[in-house]
């Protein structure tokens, strides 16, 4: 394993009166894909939102490249080099695809070579470049959401359930783009319910239950141990 690009130490997060994260500890190694897995409602989305500063950690430390980002504003965390794809996509429906992408390029104009790569990964974005994003299909909106995070090279990408509810062809397109991003050397923390995608993309893995990390290790180790899958998540990666 490489040195961690992101490290969570004893992170607690409350939402209203609810204690959601209860001492989360795990690392995201640099240059690979870390899967954050677990049943619904165990705190995976809260973990990503806490890293991005959208929800504040009540206790604990979040280190990004050995820099404490726990108390930073979301805008400062983004400028530090972290891209975020929320589960709800978060696109601007009344803006065009082009305008959505332009807003995502915080460093200046969109790089033409980067844009060509995104068009090759997500062809519908080029087709509907001048169209309002609200007119896209669900799968096309997800492509736009992911492409916005990739508009500039980031040091770390946080991606929340990108393939949820989509047809196999869309899943294959999204997984292919994430694989290419991985091949470019990006670090990715990926929440994913499609375990065949998790097995194909993941290098390392952390499994959550009830607001805590209950297991971490190599994705291949989890994928090859059906009894462990049943114990941790109640289903088999092999047969999911």
TrEMBL record:
ABC transporter domain: residues covered: 6-235
Keyword field: Amino-acid transport, ATP-binding, Nucleotide-binding, Transport
InterPro entries (UniProt xref): AAA+_ATPase, ABC_transporter-like_ATP-bd, ABC_transporter-like_CS, BCAA_Transport_ATP-bd_LivF, P-loop_NTPase
Coiled-coil ranges (or none): none
SUPFAM superfamilies assigned: P-loop containing nucleoside triphosphate hydrolases (SSF52540)
Domain of life: Bacteria
Pfam families in alphabetical order: ABC_tran
Family statement drawn from the similarity comment of this UniProt entry: Belongs to the ABC transporter superfamily.
PANTHER family the UniProt entry points to: ABC TRANSPORTER ATP-BINDING PROTEIN (PTHR43820:SF2), HIGH-AFFINITY BRANCHED-CHAIN AMINO ACID TRANSPORT ATP-BINDING PROTEIN LIVF (PTHR43820)
Protein name: High-affinity branched-chain amino acid transport ATP-binding protein LivF
Designated gene of the protein: livF_2
């Amino acid at each position: 394993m490489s040195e961690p690009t992101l490290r969570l130490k004893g992170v607690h997060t409350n939402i209203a009166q609810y204690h959601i994260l209860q001492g989360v500890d795990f690392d995201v190694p640099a240059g690979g894909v870390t899967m954050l897995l677990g049943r619904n409602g165990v705190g995976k989305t809260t973990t990503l939102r806490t890293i991005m500063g959208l929800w504040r950690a009540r206790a604990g430390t979040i280190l990004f490249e050995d820099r404490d980002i726990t108390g930073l504003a979301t805008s400062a965390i983004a400028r530090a080099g972290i891209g975020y794809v929320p589960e709800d996509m978060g696109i601007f429906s009344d803006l065009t695809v082009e305008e959505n992408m332009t807003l995502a390029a915080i460093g200046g104009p969109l790089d033409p070579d980067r844009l060509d790569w995104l068009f090759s990964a997500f062809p519908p974005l080029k087709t509907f470049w001048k169209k309002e994003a609200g007119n896209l299909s669900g799968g096309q909106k997800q492509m736009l959401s992911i492409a916005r995070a990739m508009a500039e090279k980031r040091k770390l990408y946080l991606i929340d359930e990108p393939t949820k509810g989509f047809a196999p062809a869309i899943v294959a397109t999204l997984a292919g783009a994430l694989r290419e991003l991985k091949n470019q050397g990006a670090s990715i923390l990926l929440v994913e319910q499609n375990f065949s995608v998790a097995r194909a993309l993941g290098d390392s893995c952390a499994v959550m239950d009830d607001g805590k990390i209950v297991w971490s290790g190599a994705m291949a180790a989890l994928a090859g141990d059906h009894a462990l899958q049943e114990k941790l998540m109640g289903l088999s990666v092999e047969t999911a």
